Amino acid sequence: MMMQKKDEDTDGDMFQRIDKSTVLQEARAFNEYPINPKKCQQILTKILYLLAHSEVFATAEATETFFSITKLFQSKDISLRQMVYLTIKELSSIAEDVIMVTSSLVKDINSTSETIYRANAIRALCKITDSSMLQSIERFLKQAIVDRNPSVSSAALVSSHHLFNKNKEVVKRWINEVQEASNSRGLATQYHAIGLMYLIKQHDRMAVIKMIQNYSSGLRSPYAYCMLVRYIAKILDEEDIDGNARGLYEILEGFLRHKNDMIVYEAARSICNMKNVTSKELYPAVSALQLMLVSPKVPLRFAAIRTLNKLSLTHPQAIVSCNLDIENLITDSNRSIATFAITTLLKTGNEASVDRLMKQISGFMSEIADEFKIIVVDAIRALCLKFPQKQTMMLNFLASILRDEGGYEYKKAIVDAIFDIVQSIPESREFAFSYLCEFIEDCEFTKLSVRILHLLGAEGPEVSQPSQYIRYIYNRIILENSTIRAAATSALAKFAIKIPELRERIKVLLNRCLEDVDDEVRDRASLYLRILDNEELCQKYIVNENTYSMNYLESSLQEYIEDETLRKTAFDISKIPIITKAQEKSEQLRIKTKTAGMLASSAMNSAREPSPKKSAMSEIIDPQQQYAMEMEAIPQLAALGKLFTSSALTPLTELETEYVVGCVKHIFQEAIVFQFNCRNTLNDSVLENVSIVMDIASQDDENIDLLQPMFCIPCNQLLYDQPEKIYVVYKRPQQYTPSVTFSCLLKFIVKDCDPTTGDIDTEGYEDEYQLEDLDLSIGDYVAPAFIINFQKAWDEIGDANEVVETYMLTAATSLKKAISSVVEMLGMTPCENSDIVEDRASTHALLLTGTFVGGIPCIARARMIYESSTGVTLELTVRSPVRAVCEILSNAIN
Amino acid sequence: MDTHSPLSLYSVDALIILDSDGKRILAKYFTQDYKSAREQTDFEKQLFKQTKKLNNELIMYEGKLVIYQNIVDVFIYVIANQYQNELMLCNFMTSFIDALNILLKNQVEKRVIMDNMDVVFLCIDECLDEGIILDNDATQISSRVSKKANNGDTMNLSEQSFTQAFFNARDQIARSLLK
């Protein structure tokens, strides 16, 4: 079993060749009398050792062992007793009927106050108990929380923290005891009490604020202070700054001057992570971090640079003052710190400093591990897109590291970076292609070669001297494995199709491929030779700008493979939506920026993409695509046609109410679908026949009768904590895009049910639940669109249908707020990072694009001026090929 | 509140002790992130590869904050979510190692750990409860770990019963005096 220990005779003897079945045999010793504490403790240790090495115990085995362990309660040996508790805790999740030992544990809890294992008994008891038993042990726990012994009190508090998730209501009753425990002399106890207190009060904002004010001085545990700092940051993040919050910020800032580094760091970090932080608020936090940057202690430097690195993504200008100190960290012996330093500098650097920085990086690259290099490459890619003028230097750098040794992930990152640069900076193409050609000459990764060959085939014919690439590509056909040969054949053919002058010469090469040993290569060659012989086919091939929606195709195929019944018929490709290549490209770009944004928010800090397969990719799946798939599964909704766009989820209730409801608005060509996500948070009731009654509450439109309710798809049964969806569908004439406010009412039959058994009463009664009003606004009719070059798109549409409107946004107290509300009202996508505004700026231009329902592109420019006396003045210019769309959008501001 | 939230007390995702070959001496995982034994060993293997050469004290690895220390022939790792405060975790790591030092009489090395596995298990149990830091005071932690039933052969039965008797008697006298 545990073979890893076999070959080492220096290891503890008893773990050599340790084996589960032998240990279970030995465990019979627990039943012997008198108990031999030493022997039993050794066996318990072995069991724990097996568990700590992921040995799997079957339920029966665990149960049997568990009950023989309970025999050991007869022994008075303290050490053995502690081991018994530990093993009980470990086995409790596997064994059955663990509740049986409750009485032995309770006995120990009630023993004299000097008993050292009382704390262990409490923790074990809470681990084996279930929510129905909790009431019966409540008394002991309440007593334990206020026990004079800090470890007992801590044990009770921590256990209550675990139990909170199982049974909130009971734990909430202990608030007074918890309050008392917060004055404990034990430092850790204080920390646990504060943590539990917050857990109980977390949804009551005023109570939390009061708690913070109460404890903001006078605590002794630094851990507790750290928690307090996090609570403050949470409150500040949630709310607009009002009187209360101001005071809280001052408390937070006060912590920056605390004498304990841990608390200073927590406060600085919290300020940096706040969503709407101003540069004035950032300043003291950044200064505190700057001091840590030069600390001799590694953790301090690490903590500071990690936080600044994250901050550099959102507020690069705030860090510029630290640049000098950060540059010194490039040579730090901790490579994580050095990498953070480099990537931070790449973010904050201006055009002038880039050259110097790149020189430093070149030296640095050879010393670090692959995954750090990947981060650096990503940062360089971002930098190159930011300063297109520097592309030659960047490409040179990328090409030089491409020649170095490196694993697949690293090389892939470089190739990806070059691909991106090629996509967004067309001038770089020739350079980039020649580097890539050189790379495939000696590339050990088939996948990369294939991708490069594909790119060469797709874009190579468009550069000034395309014939230069033919030699590189044909060399692959001579030298490489069959996969690459096939890809090279296709690439060659594309040159031939797109450039008639080269056609005859390439045909000669393709003819040679007909002799290839691999059938795929031969097939491709003969296919292309046929196409080349037929001018009409060639034309068709070139003008074909359409492709299938790849994500959709993939998921449909997957479904097809998994479903037995589907497989009986041939796969129907006509159901897959066709999109243009341009659309596909912009979609890819969008996903990429989204991923980059995600990395920015979370993982960029993580020194490596958190294994891309696992988290990143699954999250990228477009929610809209998911909605579309869900709705297509429902015949009534599938009949509505293709989903145009979906809004974000709007909550219609508070999060802590009995029923939690949120709504997503889906716009179809001739209908609007309101999807209500409902969740029942009461474990003692079940709702049946749940439907939503929507009524038009207000509108600013006399044609509102055109909007007609079609049908509602209710939910038959809403069980505790199992979210269900209810759909309400309205019919909408194609050109009609009203702004309406709906009132919404949840109607249902409520029945009681037993939370433990799940039995449902037969009797129920009708009830309703008022939801918050739901607004349907113009922004909901606009689908996000992504363009690379705003100016180009702006000029292309032209000013024929331009509409200009001016508004006074008196409610907006800053440009930031004005931007977010304009974006929300129009539902359009900000371009070129124009939604980011400097704090002190008084003017700003926001660039927006979108697609209006019906597939009409629209593009807008919002110029804003902020004056503290009058608020924000907005001049909105909208362009679109359709005049009506311009008018609707320009009037969407209210 | 989910266990990853920095607002909850759950702060440690895993505590791992590896030997100088990167093999597990023991490991406690408190989250579901690395569920199967396979995932765990893979993670440990990669982690060890990352950390064996340079004693960097802390790194980011797979989106996790990793604090580690190499003592003689063992590597001790504390793994936490990246939203955690690394200084707090370093502080915890120090107290854990201090407690081990007290309990193992300054001999934190593989052989001693293997010989005193029960003590190490109890020590971890007194530091961490399902990922919540239970205590960060090394003396306090070590004092809560009771010594072995019969501490090897150094103390024989009669000796122990004598000490026991002595303490009992002392308690009795103290109590009667206090009355």
Automatic annotation (TrEMBL), chain A:
Keywords: Cytoplasm, Cytoplasmic vesicle, ER-Golgi transport, Golgi apparatus, Membrane, Phosphoprotein, Protein transport, Repeat, Transport
Predominant cellular place of this UniProt entry's protein: cytoplasm
Domain Clathrin/coatomer adaptor adaptin-like N-terminal: 20-534
Keyword Isomerase among record annotations: no
UniProt xrefs under InterPro entries: ARM-like, ARM-type_fold, Clathrin/coatomer_adapt-like_N, Clathrin_app_Ig-like_sf, Coatomer/calthrin_app_sub_C, Coatomer_g_Cpla, Coatomer_gsu, Coatomer_gsu_app_Ig-like_dom
Positions of the Coatomer gamma subunit appendage Ig-like subdomain domain: 625-777
Keyword Cytoplasm: yes
Boundaries of every Coatomer subunit gamma C-terminal domain copy: 779-893
Biological process according to GO: endoplasmic reticulum to Golgi vesicle-mediated transport; intra-Golgi vesicle-mediated transport; intracellular protein transport; protein secretion; retrograde vesicle-mediated transport, Golgi to endoplasmic reticulum
PANTHER family: COATOMER SUBUNIT GAMMA (PTHR10261), COATOMER SUBUNIT GAMMA-2 (PTHR10261:SF0)
Record family assignment: Belongs to the COPG family.
Assembly and interaction partners: Oligomeric complex that consists of at least the alpha, beta, beta', gamma, delta, epsilon and zeta subunits.
Protein name: Coatomer subunit gamma
From TrEMBL, chain B:
Annotated function: The coatomer is a cytosolic protein complex that binds to dilysine motifs and reversibly associates with Golgi non-clathrin-coated vesicles, which further mediate biosynthetic protein transport from the ER, via the Golgi up to the trans Golgi network. Coatomer complex is required for budding from Golgi membranes, and is essential for the retrograde Golgi-to-ER transport of dilysine-tagged proteins. The zeta subunit may be involved in regulating the coat assembly and, hence, the rate of biosynthetic protein transport due to its association-dissociation properties with the coatomer complex.
Protein name according to UniProt: Coatomer subunit zeta
Domain AP complex mu/sigma subunit per the UniProt entry, residue ranges: 12-147
Cellular compartments annotated: Cytoplasm; Golgi apparatus membrane; Cytoplasmic vesicle, COPI-coated vesicle membrane
Any single GO CC term annotated in Swiss-Prot or TrEMBL for this entry: Golgi membrane
Membrane topology: Peripheral membrane protein
Keyword Nucleotide-binding: no
Assembly and oligomerization: Oligomeric complex that consists of at least the alpha, beta, beta', gamma, delta, epsilon and zeta subunits.
Segment forming the signal sequence: none
Family under the similarity heading: Belongs to the adaptor complexes small subunit family.
Alphabetic keyword roster: Cytoplasm, Cytoplasmic vesicle, ER-Golgi transport, Golgi apparatus, Membrane, Protein transport, Transport
Alphabetical list of Pfam families matching this protein: Clat_adaptor_s
Annotated GO biological process: intra-Golgi vesicle-mediated transport; intracellular protein transport; retrograde vesicle-mediated transport, Golgi to endoplasmic reticulum
